[in-house]
């Protein structure tokens, strides 16, 4: 069934203005007070039941219609990123060093648009919870909402979310059953020697040499300790130590990330990192400490929900398919999918004017995706909770 997107067109001018206002006034994770206020006001204007302060600055709006007893959750993220925008747009960020470089302004406007459209058309029977989540960018706002009783307070049988995807052209959509986004771990390693004169290295354990050995060893883990049938990424992303050419530093810091889709692989990598740290410490006479943080689990789509997400996408997009591979980027919607079945969808973003990748200083959300996202949420509600539904 194809959706008539012309019915959504009257909503777009106001939603575009709203999106650009959010873009010009970005807020970091758990600081989305202005954004949350705009969201809450928009939902109250529709007559929805609105709850604020969920998991910090989260907002949930509830729309009920008909006598259906099924309930679904639709989620959008609200936070921005801590880096400078370089788009030169007339609605560019007015907050220095804060930028909607991942399109969460567009996601928020899309879900508000979906709430407006569904509240007006009401071609579903059941309950929809519109979940506006804080702090997706590395701070785990979805987990905070779950711990604050999200699904106890707002019962959902299923939960869905989308993300704009610059790797795909506008008018296309992808999802997949099972893992679609990787877990995200970060590690910080401190290597401590004693420090001393560079001309007398025999008098002090060399923290830089130990760090160099450790980086080399860490980069063998995926190739040599993870089965070839599994996928993983380990990247050392920071090495810092030393202040002068003739001084051996007392300590060196390393930082990096691990991305996996399977907990057993995740365990194996963490164990290997710890073992290598212990071995290098012993062989170099340094002291090595490690802080290992599994901050986001893998995003795992329910197979049935993925099929429903793709069916809804087919109502609004001309190019839809199951993705053959997941992405190694991560998403804290995983916390919600750990609690309820559901699915995450990639919605195409790329065209001649929108080629920048996510988290790029010249990125901007493609407003041509607004009606497609609104249509997708609407089609999901109408397909999952048809108007002729009756209580069991």
Describe the structure.
The strands form four sheets. Strands 1-2-4-3-5-16-6-15 form an eight-stranded mixed beta sheet, with helices on both faces. Strands 10-12-8-13 form a four-stranded antiparallel beta sheet. Strands 7-14 form a two-stranded antiparallel ribbon. The mean pLDDT is 96. Helix 1 packs antiparallel against helix 3. The chain starts with 11 loop residues before the first helix and ends in an 8-residue tail after the last helix. The chain has two domains: 5-181 and 298-384, Zn peptidases (Aminopeptidase, 3-Layer(aba) Sandwich); 183-296, Alpha-Beta Plaits. It is elongated. It contains eleven helices and 16 strands. Strand 1 and strand 2 (58-65) form a beta hairpin. The chain has helices at residues 12-24, 33-44, 104-121, 141-147, 150-153, 207-218, 221-225, 263-284, 303-314, 334-337, 370-384; strands spanning 49-54, 58-65, 71-77, 126-133, 158-169, 172-175, 178-181, 183-192, 196-197, 232-240, 247-248, 251-260, 287-296, 299-301, 319-322, 342-350. The protein has 392 residues and is of the alpha/beta class.
What's the shape?
elongated
Strands, total number: 16
Estimated helix fraction = 25-40%
Order of helices and strands: HHEEEHEHHEEEEEHHEEEHEEHEHEH
CATH topological fold name of the largest domain: Aminopeptidase
Q: With helices defined by DSSP (H or I, 4 residues minimum), what is the helix count?
A: 11
Name of the CATH architecture of the largest domain: 3-Layer(aba) Sandwich
**What composes the largest sheet?**
8 strands, mixed
Instruction: Average the pLDDT over all residues and give the rounded result.
Output: 96
